[in-house]
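This section describes the prediction task in plain terms. A model, or a person checking by hand, is given the sequence of a single protein chain and must write out its three-dimensional structure as a string of tokens. No templates, partner chains or ligands are provided. The sample shown here is typical of the held-out split.
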Amino acid sequence: MQDKIETSAEAAEAAALPRCYEVHASPNAESGAKDLPGQLKKPVASKSPAQWAYERLILYIQNFEKTLDADHEVAMGFTGGDAGVMRIEGMGYFDPDIITFYGSDATGARTQLVQHVSQLNVMLRALPKSVQDKPANRIGFRLAADLEES
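The expected answer:
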């Protein structure tokens, strides 16, 4: 049931705006509709596929980091081949359709993944933080802050 009467234009605009909805098995996890940051509320048609994927990945990374304790950092696992896991240290996009991840692999070697949005398949993982006497790196919050400034 609809609580608010909308004009045809408002209904069409609302249908084109991004939405996020999740359901989790754990009673401690938040389920339901998610409030999106201002940048993500813009109509999808006004963004390139790369920008749209980049912005949503930031949201997923930030939400994943909220579940981590002080001894773990976010990393990504890759499917196919020998790519393994990369600790996320940066992320970007190149319009219209490329996403780039920057980081380091399990040996500490600098790593960069350049991926077409049509091939995007990322698994977020928790890894023990790289330096025990430093606070865990929270890249999702830095990415989100940069997104709000742009």
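For orientation: The first strand starts at residue 21 and ends at 22.
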